[in-house]
């Protein structure tokens, strides 16, 4: 029999329809802030459960009966050409319409009328003054607002702060992708400094919604097991945690892909590691809305700088207040693990290079044919593959890198594109990339064999020796004795001609055999 519940990948979660964890399970601080009549922010990347949390929170507050609570979105006012007056009306209308979802009719504010000019502050004053209970207001998508409208809304909330709790909501939560201190990035540069009356200092606390832990993924998946008898084993959960990093949408999407798409909701079938890998590939190939919105961010200059640095292993001056870095962390694209800046999870680390080099892959023709590099025994001829890439790189790199959006990471992405075309025929590429390492490590698995490639930009004469030391240490961690060091010359070919750039030699370092491939 088909389960009544399923893994949700669209919209907010409802316990009667979806497998879900209580979004308030670790959020006692929220109830403490409400009791203290404070303003606070909740921020997290897209599709991490913010809206689900708001709905559960508002319903729980209303059920307990001490306060009136409504969650609503201000996204209808989230475009640049809107006037403050129109924005006020749209926001008030959104609040009014959302009341139906949370509270009984006698508690609603007055219905807004288009011809009557009314500020958000006045509307909230009037509503709060007409009620016996105090109001807890939850504003979603606050950072969808721009320029004067954003400043105006925040100032109105700040001005009303003094009237709490009788003539203004006693608690307001501002919910979005970023912390309130970062909203000023949505304001025109001329207005970025707002002085001592800044509306950006009204909150008492900033709450970041975290990713799922391995234990929480197990708890979520156990709900499916309880309903259907179909088990997600510990090794499968561990692998899904590696793939998703606990990102809530991905955790649900991988499970949904396995259960409904791959196994066709046949609960008698065993879930295996191979199913988890297939789900990853399917999600990347299909690029659902979640992954598309992630990819859209890659076009932003501030995102590009950080992503390029991860792919190349370049150093950044790490500063917790560095706005670009914090921005990309807040978007959920990257994370900081013990000061290692890496992609947030394995799926992102896989899809981002694939998307960035997609056009390159499409333009690699005959030389990207898998069968060219397969030995008679079915094994991969890595030497032949890399020699073919050297030739391809010499003939095509200058043309491609010149028009490439991610120029800094271009050489690495060009090789990854070439490898992807070939390896897709029967293997997989595991990437290890982090800011400040000075290289990118690729572990290629093909027909039972493993190959280690280290990619490094030749910025200084010492790059080769450093690369040899680095790949030797990496091979130690894998228990392997052979690897390939790929060195890319970054000076123009007129300065360092191709005749001296293209090299192939075998070196020994720390008892390892290293093939050094230069170009």
Automatic annotation (TrEMBL):
Q: Name the species this protein comes from.
A: Candidatus Omnitrophus magneticus
Top-down, what is the taxonomic lineage of the species of origin? Bacteria, Pseudomonadati, Candidatus Omnitrophota, Candidatus Omnitrophus
Q: Which PANTHER family match?
A: ATPASE DOMAIN-CONTAINING PROTEIN, DNA-BINDING PROTEIN-RELATED
UniProt superkingdom: Bacteria
What protein am I looking at?
ATPase domain protein, prokaryote domain protein
